[in-house]
């Protein structure tokens, strides 16, 4: 293991077995459910403030995202998903507009090295002291403050983290990046790196196991490390 992203760390933090299965079985998981979100996220990252421009680019961006994933939607399926993408774009426009008119950086990569492992990830929007993370889901129960804390820890000098979602409109959810919480992230990352190196991949059984992408390979059977 030479690098570790937030997504991979979060998997190990939640359930070490899911981290291992992600490494072994990721190519076998249905990626189609993420396509619209990825396309809209790409549009939001490059948005220049003109709603018409972002809507006009939705078709090309969705097709490019499908091609990258080696997927093909045609006919009614494509039209339905394109309409959903445009609806999400319109919903994101209101909370995004006052942010992008500031002096900000887009898709700013931040990095840190811990125990010889390179940690890195992109901050969607960065202004002095504040990070904004764009989400395309309308279901806010999936928002994880740990993600804001992880990027704030990597970046340094961050006081506040904010999620932007289609469900929030003008009401954004601000989270204070307390030093004690950032220290917890550092400790959690260190423990994860040590656990991965020791091949500690025991499953953590919770009610959420029913929604895990890797449940068919995990429940009731041992999964050897590779």
Describe this structure in words.
The protein has 226 residues and is α/β, with parallel strands linked by helices. The chain has a domain at 3-28 and 94-218: Alpha-Beta Complex (Lambda Exonuclease, Chain A), CATH 3.90.320.10. The chain is 47% helix and 16% strand. It has 9 helices and 6 strands; from the N terminus they run βααααααβββαββαα. The chain has helices spanning 6-14, 16-25, 35-45, 51-56, 58-68, 75-100, 145-155, 179-197, 215-218, and strands spanning 3-4, 105-114, 117-127, 130-134, 160-164, 173-176. Strands 1, 2, 3, 4, 5 and 6 form a 6-stranded mixed beta sheet that branches. Helix 1 packs across helix 2 (16-25). The model is unreliable at 222-226 (pLDDT under 50).
Average pLDDT over all residues: 88
Highest CATH level, the class of the domain at 3-28 and 94-218? Alpha Beta
The portion of residues forming beta strands comes to 15-25%
CATH T-level topology of the domain at 3-28 and 94-218: Lambda Exonuclease, Chain A
Beta strands, count: 6
Query: Helix/strand/pairing class, anyone?
Result: alpha/beta
Order of helices and strands: EHHHHHHEEEHEEHH
User: Helix share of residues?
Assistant: 40-55%
CATH architectural arrangement of the domain at 3-28 and 94-218: Alpha-Beta Complex
The low-confidence runs, each spanning 5 or more residues with pLDDT under 50, are 222-226
The tally of helices reads 9
The N- and C-terminal alpha carbons lie at a distance of 12 Å
Assign an overall shape: globular
- Based on CA atoms alone, the radius of gyration comes out at 19 Å
- State the major sheet: 6 strands, mixed
């Amino acid at each position: 293991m030479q690098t570790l992203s937030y997504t991979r760390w979060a998997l190990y933090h939640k359930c070490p077995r899911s981290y291992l299965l992600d490494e072994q079985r990721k190519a076998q998981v249905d990626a189609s459910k993420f396509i619209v979100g990825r396309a809209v996220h790409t549009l939001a990252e490059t948005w220049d403030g003109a709603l018409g421009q972002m809507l006009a680019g939705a078709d090309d961006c969705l097709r490019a995202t499908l091609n990258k994933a080696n997927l093909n939607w045609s006919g009614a399926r494509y039209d339905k998903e394109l309409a959903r993408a445009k609806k999400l774009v319109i919903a994101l426009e209101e909370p995004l507009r006052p942010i992008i008119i500031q002096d900000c950086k887009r898709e700013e990569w931040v990095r840190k090295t811990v125990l010889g492992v390179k940690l890195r990830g992109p901050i969607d929007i960065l202004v002095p002291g504040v990070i904004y993370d764009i989400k395309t889901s309308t279901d806010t129960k999936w928002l994880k403050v740990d993600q804001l804390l992880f990027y704030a820890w990597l970046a340094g000098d961050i006081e506040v983290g904010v999620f932007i979602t289609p469900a929030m409109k003008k009401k954004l959810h601000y989270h204070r990046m307390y030093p004690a919480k950032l220290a917890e992230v550092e400790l959690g990352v260190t423990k994860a790196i040590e656990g991965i190196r020791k091949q500690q991949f025991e499953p953590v059984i919770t009610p959420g196991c029913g929604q895990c992408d890797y449940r068919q390979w995990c429940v009731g059977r041992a999964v050897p490390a590779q």
